[in-house]
Amino acid sequence: MVAIRHEQHRFELAPEQSVLDGLLGNGVAVPHACRTGVCQTCLMRAVEGAPPSAAQKDLRPALILRNYFLACVCHPTEDLTVALPSADANTLPATVRALRPLNDEIMQIALEVHGPWDYRPGQFLNLFKDSVVARSYSIASVPGDDSHIHLHVRRLPEGRMSGWIHGQLTVGATLSVRGPAGDCFYVPGSPEQPLLLIGTGSGLAPLYGIVRDALRQGHAGSIRLFHGSRDPRGLYLTGELRDLAAAYPQFDYVPCVSGAAAPAGHAAGRAHDVALTEQADLKGWRVFLCGHPEMVQQAQMRAYLAGANLADIHADAFTVRSSSS
Amino acid sequence: MTDQTQATPNASLFEQLGGEAAVNAAVDIFYRKVIADARINTFFFGVDMKQQAAKQKAFLTMAFGGPHHYTGLDMRKGHAKLVALGLNDRHFDIVLDHLGGTLRELGVAEGLVAQVIAIAESTRTDVLGR
């Protein structure tokens, strides 16, 4: 039986129990969200013992070397003494400089991060409301184009974080951010490579950043963005995106409506169905998929079958933390 | 702990097929065939695709006679959950068909195809947990 030590706690993990579940069960309030090893909210550090490398997937090399791990997928094979991240995990204070509703359910937050913070549009960060409640959000802003970090937060029913952001957060408040993380960003070096971007809901956030980043870096190949929602009111930034499409012939924007009749200028159907039908051959394409986990999983498989290389498919599923956890 | 990699079990076959480059070309074709086939693809759903492609690569390396880490026990444990979900001889046969199809698409001579299929066939009892 593997033993876990944290501050004054010492307990044994039940078989199949993750470090996160063990800590939560012993009353330690570890920030967490997706429980699938993706969002990195539950990042912790092993100060004694080595975490299994399966619990370090997608962490930066510097963090891996310092025995950081993701608690929700950590099933250690040896005893560990663990701690919440220290300063070397790149957590910085950030001040809210603006709050702007983008539609009925999505709020844009503009953050000024206090400290050196290098990111690529499309990566994500962990936003901490306090030491316990944190969620990960993708970055929609482009350094150079935007003076602050932009996040798009969708209000979820009973969302602990999104409800607070939509209802109580004010300009001037200070939060903490950690990151950036993730590989969902524009990779320069192949300016003629066609890009396909498919998003649902607030999945537009990283894609909006990636499109502008690509254009800013002189990307000449085709850039096709499909953003979908059940009804037109779920879409947003439509004016900005149509302007961008008018200004850049290589960029094409297709808003998609799946539930109701599609108004003029919108495609009918789910974003990934529309996209993968219109672009049936994806050999040589780079593909970005952001939003609903089912859409991302299905689209990843179909994009691969359509000829895209797995390494060229960036799948960023926006998991929602269940309210019971 | 000793390195459990087997010295290339069938170096001659692996070399004749084209080594790692051949494995990489084969994975692209084989994995797509497998996930496009509705008779077997449910066994491949819900798993991280990049991780799974890595597993296919390891499997093909072994089937091509190349260096690998697999033991019979690994194959048993690795497929136990799928067997519990109904993985059977028919599914195994279909996967072998796709393996053969992949090799023929790559222009591999029938004699070599037969050798690869024989190696893959030798894992049947372990994969199906018998």
Q: How would you describe what is shown here?
A:
The complex is a heterodimer of chains A (325) and B (130). Chain A has 325 residues and is of the alpha/beta class. Chain A has helices spanning 19-25, 61-65, 160-167, 204-216, 238-247, 271-278, 293-305; strands at 3-6, 9-12, 43-48, 68-70, 80-83, 91-101, 106-113, 124-128, 134-138, 149-154, 174-181, 195-200, 223-229, 251-257, 267-268, 286-291, 313-317. Chain A has a six-stranded antiparallel β-sheet. A six-stranded parallel β-sheet of chain A has the order 15-14-13-12-16-17, with helices on both faces. In chain A, strands 2-1-5-3-4 form a five-stranded mixed β-sheet. In chain A, strand 1 (3-6) and strand 2 (9-12) form a beta hairpin. Chain A is globular and about 60 Å long. Chain B is mostly helical. Chain B has a domain at 25-38 and 48-64 and 72-127: Globins (Globin-like, Orthogonal Bundle), CATH 1.10.490.10. Chain B contains seven helices and no strands. Chain B has helices at residues 11-17, 19-36, 49-63, 72-84, 89-105, 110-121, 124-127. In chain B, helix 2 packs across helix 3 (49-63) and helix 2 crosses helix 5 (89-105). Chain B starts with 10 loop residues before the first helix and ends with a helix. The chains are: A alpha/beta (325), B mainly alpha (130).
